[in-house]
Amino acid sequence: MLQISDLHVRYATAEAVRGVSMSATPGRVTLVLGANGAGKSSTLRAAAGLVRSHAGRVELDGQDVTNRKPHEIVRRGMVLVPEGRRVFAPLTVEENLVLGGYSAKRQAADAVLKEVFGMFPILEQRRAGQAGLLSGGEQQMLAFGRALMSSPRAMMLDEPSMGLAPTMVESVLGAVRRMAESGIAVLLVEQNPDLGLEIADDVVAMARGEVVFTGPAEQARSNASVLRAFLGEAALVE
Predict the structure, then answer these.
(1) At the N or C end, where does the chain have fewer CB atoms within 10 A?
(2) Domains of the chain: residue spans and CATH
(3) What is the DSSP letter of 12?
């Protein structure tokens, strides 16, 4: 289980995240909604060790990983798939995946590679091709696969559908659902609330660096705090 408690993140004098608490449970998708600037990505980046938190605590299965170095957090079982996919374009698909399993022993990495190819057959078909020649959706699958190579217990996904063709968005979010069903705790920041709510089990809504709603996905659609956080005050005006 991933548990973020009373997290604060500052950039110079600006506090981007103010006392945020949220969690992700194995086998479930926790969807994080909020307008641009709400603090969603900063929360994920702090949990992953990419930016330093000013206060608060991040725990993975009860172990404190707050402000540890990113590679240490990956080794402990938590990985971030960043916005924009960021695959290594000149390298092959297989080389990208192998890099994702750098912390695993060779035999274990080979076994996980087979599992990744089983989950994403298109990657096996393209394994010898350059990653930069993949479509946007295929690159997102590769980013997922690269993260899975570390055998994570928790995955944080930052805007995985951004910039994708509508025909690919459902495939990508379907892959998110499958990863959760494999037993991984998934914390998902998603720009498309309607599709995100289709695959989510739990929802956290943020506004101005704070959590304004936490609850089951089925309650989120009708909750005014969620609408206000994602769409602004205008969403509440008939």
Answers:
(1) C
(2) 2-235 (3.40.50.300)
(3) T
